[in-house]
């Protein structure tokens, strides 16, 4: 167990707040296009700040200990608190944010950080015992939301002191994960695992240039970045380097990936596996001919042609200790199919690389980014004794993150440790500009994504019949979820 407990240090806090203000006041951080963009020019920032922060509810909570149970990730930044400044920009910004809000609201912040499974068992134990042990907790979406439909979470929409329409709360989460009028999870700039769970494509610039495969950024910018173009590049970049007539880890591939790549490719095509009715309730609609064609394209492009894609668990030749990630790191793959946070794995990569969104199926659709179902979200356990106090605290914390932490995250991490060129920075606007969630994956309705991924991994066509066989379970699971929301 890792426990970080910190009582406000007013003098140190004031110094660090000043430092962060200097760092971020001149920063040109990337904006999340799902919410209104904030003016950052020096001449207008003060007026804009006054406008957006003026409605924050304040309070004096008499030294209350605000208790957070937080998840640890093997790929994403999940830090919520810090013992002290240490010179690392994110750590110091988070430290200063928390000390500032502690002083303003007269609270102390306590963070307990655990692996996702320990978060699950710990919060479940507290809920079953009706123990008020944590004010909020963070864990992966597909773990948090089911606790809501079991009656263990507060409806975020019931919190009067929370300003949900503020730009520091992620509107794609609010819109995408509200069912009916009920919302059990919340994401914002308190916790950056949401951003780090966006699916992206890294690409090796040296292979792009050496094989003259075309201007990848140019295709994205002119709206012609499609499955057809992507598939062509996979073939052109693949090469049997050792000349043995077999494609193994000793050779060069068009992409390196694992089976999870199926879902972002489907969603980037403009397809959805479940939809919403006029009452914002989910329903299942049998898959279309277009869906079947897209699925078949993905299977042919990523799985059936083993000479083009190094697929985890299928392609041979890795030495002990290596993974499919190493194929890209070692310069043996044009594309790297992963979530944004995994770009941290590329820090030691010698080749220059860029990032782009997943391709569209055709020109008629906008670029769409799938946010993985394991993105972290905030839940408020039903054992919380004062939800309005919690609402005030998290609203002020998230607002201060918007003011002083967000730009540090984008400018220092994304534009320093994750990506390496200005074009990639521009691509983040597109990647974050139209984010969606695979609701059926988060809720687990009929194991629908698993059915699709397993079929693709096995290089199977005829997906319509496989989904049809799963339909009774899909329909029953969705109906159970709908009935819960209608009756609560």
Can I get a quick summary?
Helix content is 43%, strand content 14%. With 488 residues, the protein is of the alpha/beta class.
Description of the molecule:
The chain has 488 residues and is of the alpha/beta class. The chain has two domains: 2-196 and 373-418, 3-Layer(aba) Sandwich (D-Maltodextrin-Binding Protein, domain 2), CATH 3.40.190; 199-371 and 441-487, D-Maltodextrin-Binding Protein, domain 2 (3-Layer(aba) Sandwich), CATH 3.40.190.10. Helix content is 43%, strand content 14%. The chain has a five-stranded mixed beta sheet with strand order 1-3-2-4-13. The protein has a five-stranded mixed beta sheet with strand order 9-6-10-5-11. Helix 1 crosses helix 3 (89-105). The protein is globular, with a radius of gyration of 23 Å. The protein starts with a strand and ends with a helix.
Q: What is the CATH level 1 assignment of the largest domain? A: Alpha Beta
How much helix is in the residues? 40-55%
Q: Give the overall shape.
A: globular
Q: Strand tally, please?
A: 14
Our measurement of the CA-to-CA distance between the termini, rounded to an integer number of angstroms, reads 36 Å
CATH architecture of the largest domain: 3-Layer(aba) Sandwich
Instruction: Give the number of domains.
Output: 2
Structural class call reads alpha/beta
Q: What Rg do the Cα atoms give?
A: 23 Å
Largest sheet: spatial strand order: 1-3-2-4-13
Q: Into which percentage range does the β-strand content fall?
A: 5-15%
């Amino acid at each position: 167990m890792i426990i970080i407990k910190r009582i406000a240090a007013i003098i140190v806090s004031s110094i660090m707040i000043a430092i962060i203000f200097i760092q971020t006041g001149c920063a040109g951080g990337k904006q999340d296009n799902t919410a209104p963009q904030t003016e950052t020019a020096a001449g207008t920032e003060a007026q804009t700040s006054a406008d957006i922060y003026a409605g924050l509810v304040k309070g004096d909570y008499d030294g209350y200990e605000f208790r957070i149970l937080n998840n640890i990730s093997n790929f994403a930044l999940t830090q919520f608190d810090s013992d002290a400044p240490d010179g690392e920009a994110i750590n110091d910004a988070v430290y200063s944010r928390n000390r500032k809000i502690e002083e303003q609201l007269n609270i102390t912040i306590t963070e307990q950080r655990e692996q996702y499974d320990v978060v699950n068992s710990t919060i479940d134990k507290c809920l079953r015992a009706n123990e008020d042990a944590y004010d909020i907790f963070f864990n992966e979406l597909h773990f948090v939301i089911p606790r809501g439909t079991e009656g263990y979470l507060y409806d975020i929409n019931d919190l009067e002191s929370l300003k949900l329409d503020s730009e520091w709360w992620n509107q794609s989460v609010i819109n995408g994960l509200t069912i009916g009028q009920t919302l059990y999870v919340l994401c914002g700039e308190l916790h950056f695992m949401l951003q780090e769970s966006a699916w992206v494509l890294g690409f090796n610039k040296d292979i792009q240039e050496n094989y003259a495969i075309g201007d990848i950024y140019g295709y994205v910018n002119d709206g012609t970045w499609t499955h057809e173009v992507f598939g062509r590049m996979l073939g052109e970049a693949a090469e049997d380097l050792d000349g043995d007539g077999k494609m193994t880890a000793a050779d060069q591939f068009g992409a390196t990936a694992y089976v999870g790549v199926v879902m972002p490719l489907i969603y980037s095509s403009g397809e959805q596996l479940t939809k919403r009715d006029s009452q914002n309730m989910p329903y299942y609609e049998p898959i279309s001919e277009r869906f079947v064609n897209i699925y078949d394209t993905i299977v042919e492009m990523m799985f059936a042609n083993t000479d083009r894609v190094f697929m985890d668990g299928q392609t041979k030749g890795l030495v002990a200790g290596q993974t499919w990630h190493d194929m890209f790191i070692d310069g043996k793959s044009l594309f790297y199919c992963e979530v944004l946070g995994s770009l941290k794995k590329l820090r030691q990569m010698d080749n220059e690389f860029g990032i782009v969104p997943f391709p569209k199926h055709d020109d008629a659709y906008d670029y769409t980014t799938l946010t993985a179902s394991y993105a972290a979200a905030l839940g408020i356990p039903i054992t919380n004794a004062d939800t309005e106090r919690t609402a005030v605290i998290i609203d002020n914390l998230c607002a201060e993150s918007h003011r002083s932490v967000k730009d540090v995250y984008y400018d220092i991490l994304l534009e320093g440790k994750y990506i390496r060129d200005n074009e990639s920075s521009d691509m983040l606007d597109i990647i974050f500009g139209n984010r969606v969630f695979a609701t059926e994956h988060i809720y687990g309705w009929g194991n629908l994504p698993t059915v699709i991924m397993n079929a693709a991994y096995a290089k199977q066509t005829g997906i319509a019949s496989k989904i049809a066989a799963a339909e009774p379970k899909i329909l029953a699971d969705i109906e159970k979820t709908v009935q819960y929301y209608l009756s609560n």
